[in-house]
Amino acid sequence: MNLFKEIADIKTADQLHLPTPQVEYHNIVAQPTEQQQEMVKALSERASLVHSGTVDPSQDNMLKITSDGRKLGLDQRIINQLLPDEPGTKVNQCVDNIMQIWRDGEADKLTQLVFCDISTPQARPAKKVAKALDNPTLHALEDAVPLDEPEPAFTVYEDIRQKLIARGVPAEQIAFIHEANTEVRKKELFSKVRTGQVRVLLGSTAKMGAGTNVQDRLVALHDLDCPWRPGDLAQRKGRIERQATRTRPSMCTDTSRRGLSMPTSGRRWKTNRNSSARL
After folding, report:
1. Which is nearest to 40 in space by CA: 255, 259, 267?
2. Domains along the sequence of the chain with CATH
3. Torsion of CA 106, 111, 114, 119, to 10 degrees
4. What is the phi-psi region of residue 40: left when phi exceeds 0, alpha when psi lies from -120 to 50, beta otherwise?
5. DSSP state for residue 151 in the 8-state scheme
6. Strands 111-115 vs 200-203: parallel, antiparallel or unpaired
7. Cα angle value 174/178/180 (rounded, 5°)
8. What is the mean pLDDT of the segment spanning 194-200?
9. Cα atoms in the Cβ-side hemisphere of radius 13 Å centred on 98
10. What pLDDT does residue 229 have?
C-alpha cells in the first residue's frame, strides 16, 4: 500500500464527504429459545472435550463447534429442521420488520436488502450439472424427464420467502441473488430492484456485496448474521449508504442473539466494529 501511495493520491470516503443518505441503525435483539440454551450447553461440553485433548480432531474440533454456534445463533432449525419455529426468533423478527417496511413503502415501491451468509439456497445436483455444461439438450432433458427429488433441506432464505408470501407479498417481488447465476441474469435482477419490480432481495456478502448497485429505491438493509471480516461488513453497508440512494433516512437492521455464550453474532459484531475502528 505504501508503494502504491507513491504514485497515487488515495482518498477515503470520510475525506471526500460525498452526499450520502443519513443511515439510521436499529439493533434488534432476539432472546434464545429453551432448545437453543440446551444446545449451547452441548456446544460448551464439546469445546471442553476438545480442549482436554480427548477428542480426535477429525471427529470434532473448535472450527466445527464455532460453525455450529453460528448456525444455532441464527436459527435452531439449521441444526435440526424438526425443531419448532419459535415466534421470537431472529428470522421471524426480521420478517416482521421486512413486512412493516414493505407496507410503508408500497406507494413508492421502496426496496430492501437482506444479508445472510449462513443457510444459503443450494442448487439441485441436476441443475448444477446443466449449468456447468450449459448444454440446451441437458436443460430440455431435465425438464422432460421427471425425477424423484429429495426433500429439500431447510434454509433461512426459503423460510423467509414463504413467510413473506403468506403475509401478502407477491412472489415475484422476492428474489435470491443466487438465482441470478449469470451476468445477464444478474443485470436483469438489479434492474428489477432499481425499478421496484423486485422489492426484497436476499443474498450473501460474497454474491451481493461489491458490484451490487441497486440503491435507487433502497430504504432498508437487514443483517441476519455478521460476516467474519470488517471489510465484508463495510461492503454490506456500502449497498445503501452511497450516492443515488433516495434522500430519506435509510435503515440498517442488525439482528443479534442475546444470551448465547458461544461465539455467535453478538460477539462477532463487537469484534468487527472494534477492528474497523483500528483500521
Report:
1. 259
2. 18-33+86-120+155-278 (3.40.50.300)
3. 80
4. alpha
5. P
6. parallel
7. 80
8. 96
9. 31
10. 84
